[in-house]
Amino acid sequence: MIAARRGNLLTLALLAPSLLSAILLLVIPILIVIAFSFAEQDTYGGAKFGFTLASYQELFQAIYLPIFLNSLQLAAVSTLVCLLVGYPIAYFIALRAGRYAGLLLALLLIPFWIDFIVRMSAWMVLLGRNGTMNSALVGLGFIEQPVRMIGTYPAVLVGMLYAFLPTTVLPIHAALNGLDKRLLEAADDLGATPLQSFWRVTFPLSLPGVMAAILFVFVPAMGVYAIPVLLGGGKSIILGNLIVQLFLDFRNMPLGAAVSVVLLAISSVIIVGYMRVLRSVEEARA
Amino acid sequence: MNNWRILLTSASLLALTSAASAAELNIYAWSGEVPQEIVDDFSKETGITVTFDTYDSNETMMAKLSAGASGYDLIEPSQYTVQVLAKQGLLQELDHAKIPNIGNLGAPFKEVSYDPGQKWSVPYIWGTTGFAYNEDCVKTPPTSWKALWDPQYEGRIYMLDNMLAAYIAGLQVNGFDAGTTKPEEIEKATQSLIEQKKVLGGYNSTNYGDLLASGEACVVQGWNGSIAQVTATNPKVKYVIPDEGGSMWIDGFAIPTSAKNVEEAYKFIDYIMRPEVAAKAANLSKSATVVDKAKAMLPKDVAENAAIYPPEDKLMKADFILDVGDATKLYQDGWTKVKTAQ
């Protein structure tokens, strides 16, 4: 009894630092944001604490709906592009690269030691009218005149792909890396073509990695801010930009906080629902 | 003996603490308007350690101030921002006795409509909002805001990512006054700005000068100071105050209520009002100074630069945007519509 209590105390003591930092840095800030979302707003940007649903009512007006749809769409398309590019890379590193696998993984990650904004600025140089990409395409004769890349939707997708590629590759690589090679040999022996053995053995076994990758890309992609501004010219506004606009340009903290709360709610619902699906997939396999 | 030691120790301790709390000043100013050299000179002369942050819209600065203690001792709001901040009680009333050099202000800046008697702010530089183009891709010099709607520059037109600035163009291109409070005029401007998105490369209020100089952009809306800085190295970039008027602005220094280092803030304001300092600042930032004696010290390429000191008749036509009060909401809803339009 005493020993058990002592054990509990010890657990608590050991957990205290992380518990405390989670409360201080995660729970309290979120509570502050939630409190602000119910505050009242005056014309001059002051927020008076109180309880009003005015911000939420304003939020569900027709002008904000397209922003939510834009964000969901960008997140979905980015996730798809990341998977299409990331899967083959993960597959190659896990199953084909042999002793170069470690090196390739390192090469994938090293650029991420550089600050995010600096890397995005580099893309602005690469994709500029007089940039490397245009000069190369003109030099090779693919195009006659430099074309506009900055300020277009594909440029935003390039930025998203670049930003989220490692978070796509790593979980898929982890799933494929643990793959029992004998299963592939067995499939081969039983007369499966390479395509069949990929589709019926490799791919299903990598699904947990793919599912994790989708989650890791989709959720943060909903909240991106800098990429659409720097590479997309800031022309199509998504939730991240809306929050910045409401806080900084319009000084409407309650409405900005309400958008943040709704974004948080959407992400939470997606995560919880997704975890359920993931669990049932894994149970079905077991 | 012992007493001496105690005295010495406490004296050295005192010295230590005073060194630790050496005079500091936290400045928050428009990017590109207060040159780093001026800040360094000031530090060297006074021994005050200056922390220097910049913003590219009044609204961002206001948001930080109204969110609570911002840690800034000196800010550089534009005219309408002085009104808004004063109404919110976020500015300290200035003690002119601590700014002896305030007398150096040129006549037009001694009495400004937005801040009678310089109660809240001291003007620092002034300028205009207009547009600029690159001669490489714009062959006939444009004179109207309409250049920013011209389909032949599709994808190579950039607007300031700033609500009020965008509406200056949106309102004036329709023949309205910038800074109107009439809902139907704001609505019409909103439609024009939505229409414009088809030909727009993007919104940018940070490095639009570079976009223009590099040829990424053909026409950009901009503030004259940033453009003049680019023109200095790339003469193909030309600044235009549009026929419709454009706008004139004045940026000045003010001390927030939450300021901790008030004396240092006064020292900086007084420092930058010295004619030779004002001249150096104006020359480096390629902006128009409010100090008459400083103008006489400027090199010809700055003093006679029409982008910096526009002709009188152009200035007379320019709008001067003041606080629009409750109409702010109309602008904001319109701007959100503009930003969400596909």
UniProtKB/TrEMBL annotation, chain B:
<keyword id="KW-0574">Periplasm</keyword>
<protein>
    <recommendedName>
        <fullName>Putrescine-binding periplasmic protein</fullName>
    </recommendedName>
</protein>
<feature type="binding site">
    <location>
        <position position="80"/>
    </location>
    <ligand>
        <name>spermidine</name>
    </ligand>
</feature>
<dbReference type="InterPro" id="IPR006059">
    <property type="entry name" value="SBP"/>
</dbReference>
<feature type="signal peptide">
    <location>
        <begin position="1"/>
        <end position="22"/>
    </location>
</feature>
<dbReference type="InterPro" id="IPR001188">
    <property type="entry name" value="Sperm_putr-bd"/>
</dbReference>
<keyword id="KW-0732">Signal</keyword>
<comment type="function">
    <text>Required for the activity of the bacterial periplasmic transport system of putrescine.</text>
</comment>
<dbReference type="GO" id="GO:0015846">
    <property type="term" value="P:polyamine transport"/>
</dbReference>
<keyword id="KW-0813">Transport</keyword>
<dbReference type="GO" id="GO:0042597">
    <property type="term" value="C:periplasmic space"/>
</dbReference>
<dbReference type="Pfam" id="PF13416">
    <property type="entry name" value="SBP_bac_8"/>
</dbReference>
<dbReference type="GO" id="GO:0019808">
    <property type="term" value="F:polyamine binding"/>
</dbReference>
<comment type="similarity">
    <text>Belongs to the bacterial solute-binding protein PotD/PotF family.</text>
</comment>
